[in-house]
Automatic annotation (TrEMBL):
InterPro entries: GPCR_Rhodpsn, GPCR_Rhodpsn_7TM, Olfact_rcpt, OR51/52/56-like
Function (record text): Odorant receptor. Putative odorant or sperm cell receptor.
Annotated GO MF terms: G protein-coupled receptor activity; olfactory receptor activity
Species of origin: Myotis brandtii (Brandt's bat)
Protein name: Putative olfactory receptor 52P1
PROSITE patterns the record matches: G_PROTEIN_RECEP_F1_1, G_PROTEIN_RECEP_F1_2
Gene3D superfamilies: Rhodopsin 7-helix transmembrane proteins (1.20.1070.10)
Keywords attached to this entry: G-protein coupled receptor, Membrane, Olfaction, Receptor, Sensory transduction, Transducer, Transmembrane, Transmembrane helix
Pfam families: 7tm_4
Length: 236
């Protein structure tokens, strides 16, 4: 994106475009799995805190990370392979700031039913599975929280989940709109497709530091110290 805006670098090799597409979608699926892991972390911390250290061991965290990477790698791998078999005769301009899967598929001069079907199946399976697991975790969390007798304890437990919920919304909301405008919105202007596809990549990394910075006292105090050096910073 910066190459386009700053350097007017509008060209990209076809194989490089496929590599970019593969890496972008792979890391997006890994990020989705990371949100699931964070929801599981909150579930264990709130619902079964006494077993937290025995369940979320270093070995378990490594297995979850490797599982997330393996899933993303294998699910996205067929996408560039299926695109490679398509002929491209006339259209060679992608109406996007990066090589998005459906944008590349639409340029092909052949039947792209298999590509579209596989792209939809991957997107739906990731969203349904991951959002289902996240929703299940938070249903269990809410059940446990509202059983607490202390209002202060309930507020503290819900406060620990607030940052994660904001991150989930920042990630899945533009992703869902981008997915729907491509598959359902036949009369949606191309500019809307481009905006939502770009926001899908830009919003989460922009919002995440703000969300966790505000919720983390140490980070908040350090940032305040940079802008107000003469103000006394409280430290634990």
């Amino acid at each position: 994106m910066l190459g386009i805006f700053w350097l007017e670098a509008h060209g990209i090799e076809f194989n490089t475009c496929l590599a970019q597409m593969y890496l972008i979608h792979t890391f997006c699926i890994i990020e989705s799995a990371l949100l699931v892991a964070m929801a599981f972390d909150r579930y264990v911390a709130i619902c079964i805190p006494l077993r937290y250290t025995t369940i979320l061991t270093t070995t378990m965290v490594i297995k979850m990370g490797l599982g997330s990477m393996t899933r993303a790698t294998l699910m996205v791998l067929p996408c560039p392979l299926l695109i490679k078999r398509l002929p491209y005769y006339t259209k060679k301009v992608i109406n996007h700031t990066y090589c998005e899967h459906m944008a590349v598929v639409k340029l092909a001069s052949a039947n792209t039913l298999i590509n579209r079907a596989y792209g939809i199946s991957v997107a739906l399976s990731v969203m349904i599975l991951d959002l289902g697991l996240i929703a299940t975790s938070y249903i269990k969390i809410l059940q446990a929280v509202f059983q607490l007798s202390s209002q202060n304890a309930r507020s503290k437990a819900l406060g620990t989940c607030a940052a994660h919920v904001c991150t989930i919304l920042a990630f899945y909301t533009p992703a869902l709109f981008s997915f729907l405008t491509h598959r359902i919105g036949k009369k949606v202007p191309p500019s809307v497709h481009i905006i939502f596809a770009s926001l899908y990549l830009l919003i989460p990394p922009t919002v995440n530091p703000l969300v966790y910075g505000v919720k983390t006292k140490q980070i908040r105090d350090r940032v305040m110290g940079l802008f107000f050096p003469n103000k006394k910073i409280s430290e634990n």
